Amino acid sequence: MTTLVRKPTEAGIRRECLRQCPGCGEQRTRRWVRGRDRNFEAVEGEFPYVRCRVCGLIYLAARLREEDVTSAYPHWYAPYLSQSAVGIQRSSLVERALARVEGNATRWLRAKIRSLLKAPPDPLPFVLKKFYEPPTPGARLLDYGCGSKRFLDEARLSGWQTLGMDFAESVVAEVDRAGHRAFLAPCGWREIGDGSLDAVRLNHVIEHLYHPGEMLAIARRKLRVGGRLHIATPNPAGLSAFLFRSCWYGLEAPRHVMLYSPPALSSFLERHNFCNIRIIAERSTKDLTRSLGNLLHAAGLIPREEVTTMATDRLLSAWAELLMLLALRLGRPDRYHVFAEVGKGS
Are residues 17 and 62 in contact, defined by beta-carbon separation less than 8 angstroms? Predict the structure, then answer.
């Protein structure tokens, strides 16, 4: 049982201090990094992360109380938006010509980088395509922590019977209006029968959960034998985390309360009786470019609104691909995906 010590913080919000690892109960830790809410600036103050010396879990040692954590999720929180942000549209003939030249230069640069590093084919798109093919007509897919209806709309077109669950009532209402079965977490689990799900998706969700073990135990019970689990999450052992530390975009303090390296998450799933666990790196430059943006913003060189747009800068992303491919060679991807199954007798 994790020991909690509660103390007051800004604007009446209270924090709770963890005296032992929420993953294994170990009390021996080492300081990892102190973070701030750089990405959305919804909560003030610093947030200390520590690393468990036994299981390797990185967790927020002084976090917002669970009942107060909604204050860290403003209405402009990106996963709650149904449409992706649209950049400035180039309209003039000259601007369109420059955009084409820039695009050709970027493609040439990326091709050269991949050739020099002899980058192998990316297996992730194929694995995702196979995972999200319904095993039977009308198979049931739950998007846990769905954030919006975007993914569920696509899954329904592929033949899934779609279910969405989220902690935000506004998200649940949007998903329901779109014609999907919608549930408010965590009480919504009671409305889903045991062994009735074919797949569960947690896309950048597990790092937000205060009780991930309880959620995994319930998800395993709701999945049929052979049912599949997909988790995508940031990697605290990745290159961006190493290079940018407190400015790492994937730190996402104080919303990310636990951060799992690939071995830590694999062990966690094994302890909850999932099998056939497979880990695949994601080839993304988003965290590199946006972490650089956080660093530049912290230095007062760019405004906050330019941080996220750095991920759409094609030339910067092309150079970042060089670092990303080197990170893959070193086994330090910024993001990774885990695929697991429910076996017989588990």
Answer: yes
End-to-end CA distance of the chain: 24
- What's the rounded Cα separation, in Å, for the pair 299 and 296? 5
With vertex at residue 205, the alpha carbon angle to CA 274 and CA 209, rounded to the nearest 5 degrees, is 85
Residue 226 gets the label, from left (phi > 0), alpha (psi -120 to 50) or beta, of left
Using an 8 Å Cβ cutoff, are 220 and 275 in contact? no
Whether residue 177 has pLDDT greater than 90: yes
Cβ contacts of 107 within 8 Å, gap of 6 or more: none
How far apart are the C-alpha atoms of 162 and 144, rounded to whole Å? 11
The string of pLDDT tens digits covering residues 226-243 is 999 999 999 999 999 999
* Residue pLDDT, tens place only, 269-299: 999 999 999 999 999 999 999 999 999 999 9
C-alpha 43/C-alpha 65 separation (Å) is 13
C-alpha to C-alpha distance for 305 and 315, rounded to whole angstroms: 19
Are the C-beta atoms of residues 219 and 144 closer than 8 Å to each other?
A: yes
In this structure, what token pair is assigned to residue 147? 């954030």
